[in-house]
Design brief:
heterodimer, A: about 70 residues, mainly alpha, two-stranded antiparallel sheet, B: about 150 residues
Chain lengths: ~70, ~150
């Protein structure tokens, strides 16, 4: 059984480094609701590959600098 | 709260109100013997059609009211009506629960008929399995919104 999120992310830090970009700004750039960004940031929801790319692109970073995969063991 | 989550609350409230009325009305009709005559199925069908229309109107009114109250409470000048992939994932999850309950209700109605129950009883069971299915779907969606997914 999984003990925590398999996909984590660095969105909070990247938002801070992007001049305190708000969750709403990021949501608008990725064309999703703010609630989805909140859920992804808290690792409560794993985005699709397409949305993950959109979020990474909003920061101008490659995907692997935004999202991380952990083995569930 | 996303617009889909708001709409799920509205759907839940609307179906609770409509089905509470439906149960109250059914008990009343059985008590008065209205559903004991030969035209019971016709009376039942008319009542269901009326309830469907009432449910549509009630849902529209509640959606408008809920959105107005939400806009006032949050101070949002232009509330978002955007739905995204997370909403769709929860929608599918809710539909799974709805379908499961409906299938059990359908099988239950067929079994009831096979055991000699009246068609009216089977139709009532079908109606309430649809209602319970919708309720289960809404609850699963709301739980998904609350606890993530």
């Amino acid at each position: 059984m999984s003990k925590g999120p398999v996909i984590s992310n660095d969105i909070r830090r990247l938002r801070f480094e992007a001049g305190e970009m708000t969750q709403k700004d990021l949501a608008d750039k990725a064309k999703v609701t703010r609630q989805t960004i909140i859920a992804i940031e808290a690792a409560k929801y794993s985005p699709t590959l397409e949305l993950a790319f959109k979020i990474a692109r909003a920061f101008g970073r490659p995907l692997e600098e935004v999202f991380f995969y952990k083995d569930p063991d | 709260m996303s617009s889909d989550e708001r709409n799920t609350y509205v759907s839940l409230l609307s179906s609770l109100l409509i089905n509470a009325y439906m149960i109250w009305h059914l008990v009343d009709m059985f008590g008065a013997g209205t559903l004991s005559g030969p035209d019971a199925l016709q009376i039942w069908a008319r009542m269901v059609l009326w309830v469907i229309c009432a449910a549509i109107v009630l849902t529209i009114v509640l959606t408008i009211l809920f959105n107005i109250v939400f806009a006032i409470a949050t101070g949002e000048k232009s509330p978002q009506f955007l739905s995204d992939e997370r909403d769709r994932v929860f929608e599918v999850r809710g539909m799974g629960a709805t379908t499961l309950v409906m299938i059990f209700g359908f099988i239950g109605a067929i079994v009831a008929l096979a055991l000699g129950q009246t068609p009216l009883f089977a139709f009532i069971q079908l109606y309430f399995s649809l209602a319970l299915g919708s309720l289960a779907g809404d609850l699963v969606k709301l739980a998904s919104y609350r606890h993530g997914g």
